[in-house]
Amino acid sequence: MTKCLYCKTKIKGRSDKKFCTPYCKSSFHYQESLKVEASFFNRVDKQLKLNRKLLKSYNKAGKSIVRKTTILKDGFSPKYFTHYWKNKEGDVYLFCYEYGFLEKIDNGKPKYILVTWQAYME
Hints:
The chain is built from three helices and five strands, in the order H-H-E-H-E-E-E-E.
């Protein structure tokens, strides 16, 4: 009899079995994945999801203004966005999925104008 790779209990059943339960198998592979450095794709995907979450939480009404330092301290990174939209005045809004932002200086302080994607932007 062999022992489970995760919990070290004796395994009953087939001779080539490595885990005693599906829970132990899942837990073992999850712990192994934590040891490996995240791939570039996973890091970018995680940051895009965080950016979207923050833009959504600061923009309840469809358009709002937030201080740049406030949203940056929560983990927002303006380097990561999914697409952009340029308005008639030439301002370029960067979007994380359906939530966009534009950096402006207001009274000498950097701020973000937050917007939600609209049908006319297509």
